[in-house]
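Limitations
The structure tokens in this dataset are predictions for the assembled complex, not deposited experimental models. Users should treat interface geometry with appropriate caution, especially where small molecules or nucleic acid strands are included. An illustrative entry is reproduced here so readers can see what is and is not provided.
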Amino acid sequence: SQKIEQNSEALNIQEGKTATLTCNYTNYSPAYLQWYRQDPGRGPVFLLLIRENEKEKRKERLKVTFDTTLKQSLFHITASQPADSATYLCASTGYSSASKIIFGSGTRLSIRP
Amino acid sequence: KAGVTQTPRYLIKTRGQQVTLSCSPISGHRSVSWYQQTPGQGLQFLFEYFSETQRNKGNFPGRFSGRQFSNSRSEMNVSTLELGDSALYLCASSPDGREGQPQHFGDGTRLSIL
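Predicted assembly:
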């Protein structure tokens, strides 16, 4: 079955460093990968989208990559700040279903001052 | 522009009861999707509505149903509630649900089953 996995349940890093989160997918080829941020008690908020024919996308301190050979997406936050602490979710949509999105289980990122 | 609004924010029910949750999408958005989020299973897709029709459905039992009205507002109903239905139920909207469109989420309804 289609599966998307975020390997790290939690990640703790020092302020100012680059946080790198990983998302792997198996048994399908998503056309798009999306990344969301979720704060406690709130709904997810969309951050970035990358298409399968794009290698990299950037937005301010955020960067996402899509490697169809490794079946993997990496999400980077550079110059991390304590305010970046949250759970980050990756999500995919494939060709088989136009609007059915599969979410990863999330990585809880903590940035310590 | 107002965001996605979900009501109520919190709900407590007992086993066997039924519940209806409400979602008002962003103005102009015609696609509304529902998700269940639990610590064990994460965020799982329930179903998507577009133009008052269910267009996609996830792997949930028939006790979970929904509908969409002509103004794009949507409701989700769960009948014969079970303890395992305790979860955060999230609604998300997008302009027309085309593949790859970002989902705009509400802050959810926290449902607790006693």
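Some entries come with short summary sentences. For this one: The radius of gyration of chain B is 13 Å.
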